Each structure stands twice: as C-alpha cells, then as structure tokens.
C-alpha cells in the first residue's frame, strides 16, 4: 500500500521526481530534508531556483548560459579568439573549463543532429556559428561533441560546411570513450583529448 503523505509533501515529491535521475525514493528523501531544514534554508533554495529562472539567459555570442551578456568567457581578453570549441550543451563547456586546458572561445549548439528525434540543422545554433566564422579572425574550430553516433554526425556535418571557409577543423582525440558524455569524463582524460585532437 503506498505511503500517504500530507498533500504539500506529496506535491513536493511529485515536483522533485521531474528532475533528471531523481526517482520517488530520492524525491521523498529530498522532500523530508527540505522539511527538516530551517525556514531560512528553504527560502534560500526557493529563491535560488527562481533567480536562475529569472536571470539566466543565453550569451548572444557563444550561447552559453549566463547572467550577463556577453558571458564572462566571451568578455575575457585573455582568451584566444582564433580558436572556437564547439560543444553540444552548457554541461560540456563546464566540463572542458574544469580541465583548465582550453583557453579559446566556445560555441554551444544546444543539441546534436538527430533525424530520428526530428532535430535538424535549423534546430541548433549552427547559423549563429557560421556568422561568427565570418571575417577571417577564427583560424581553428574544435569539434567537442560527444563521441556518440549523433555527436559524430554533427561533427562531420559541421566540418563539411566549415572547411570550405578555409578554417582548420579538428576533432577532440579519442581519449573520450564512445557513448560517453563529456560532463562525466575526468579532467585528465578531457585535457589529453584536447591536446591530442586530430584533423577532421
């Protein structure tokens, strides 16, 4: 027989199960933890969630998540503006930044090509990438999409449309396992993958 919670607890559990990787047991533990927390801590959590929804937007240059436009990476004068690293999502950018081995700029596609799921070139930030490549300042584009079938297809597609612009296109090395997600790869492997990137 299912456990009967008070309605507000049940509602909180139901909302928490909508988070990725959170099942009903974990949601119940989190809900009870929030219930036991101080009023101040609960309010701080609620405010943090609302603040993220209200203040976070996409950088108009690289399309990373940011609270200022352009983002801190795009504003940083120490970054190498001749190299752009293309990633599928913000979580991959964070993983590469943690490795500390890349000092260029990024471009976040917000997905990968996936015809079976109806995701085509117009659904990604591809036209925006091509706009950034105009003017001849960018000398290299690094493809750092996940080593999955969709990630590889996206890298190949982009390579075919970027190479005619006279820009070097490289792919991160295969230190990253097939089928793996960049956000879960350790910093050393990511660092080596960037160092050992190869032409595409």
How are the elements arranged and paired?
Blueprint: H1 7-16, H2 24-36, H3 39-55, E1 57-58, E2 65-66, H4 72-75, E3 80-87, H5 90-99, E4 104-108, H6 126-132, E5 140-143, H7 149-162, E6 168-171, H8 187-195, E7 198-199
Parallel strand pairs: 3-4, 3-5, 5-6
Antiparallel strand pairs: 1-2, 6-7
Helix pairs in contact: 1-2, 5-8
Mean pLDDT: 91
Q: Sum up the overall morphology in one term.
A: elongated
What is the H/E order? HHHEEHEHEHEHEHE
Strand order of the largest sheet: 4-3-5-6-7
Helix content: 40-55%
Total number of strands: 7
Q: How many domains, in number, for the residues?
A: 2
> In terms of per-residue confidence, which ranges show pLDDT below 50 for 5 or more consecutive residues?
none
Class from helix and strand fractions: alpha/beta
Q: Alpha-carbon distance between the termini?
A: 57 Å
Tell me the fraction of residues in β-strands, as a range: 5-15%
The biggest sheet amounts to: 5 strands, mixed
Instruction: Find the CATH topology of the largest domain.
Output: Dna Topoisomerase Vi A Subunit, Chain: A, domain 2
CATH class of the largest domain equals Alpha Beta
Number of helices: 8
């Amino acid at each position: 027989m299912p456990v009967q919670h008070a309605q507000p607890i049940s509602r909180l559990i139901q909302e928490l199960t909508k988070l990725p990787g959170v099942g009903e047991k974990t949601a119940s533990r989190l809900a009870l933890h929030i219930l036991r927390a101080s009023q101040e801590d609960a309010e701080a959590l609620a405010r943090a969630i609302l603040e993220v929804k209200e203040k976070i937007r996409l950088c108009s240059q690289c399309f990373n998540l940011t609270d200022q436009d352009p983002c801190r990476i795009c504003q940083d004068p120490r970054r190498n503006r001749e190299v752009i690293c293309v990633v599928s999502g913000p979580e991959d950018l964070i993983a590469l930044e943690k490795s500390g081995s890349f000092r260029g700029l990024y471009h976040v596609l917000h997905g990968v090509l996936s015809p079976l799921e109806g995701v085509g070139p117009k659904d990604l930030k591809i036209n925006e990438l091509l706009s950034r490549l105009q003017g001849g300042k960018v000398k290299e584009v690094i493809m750092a999409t996940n080593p999955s079938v969709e990630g590889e297809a996206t890298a190949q597609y982009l390579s075919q449309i970027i190479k005619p612009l006279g820009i070097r296109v490289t792919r991160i090395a295969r230190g990253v396992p097939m089928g793996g997600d960049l956000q879960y790869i350790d910093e050393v492997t990511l660092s080596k993958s960037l160092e050992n990137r190869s032409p595409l």
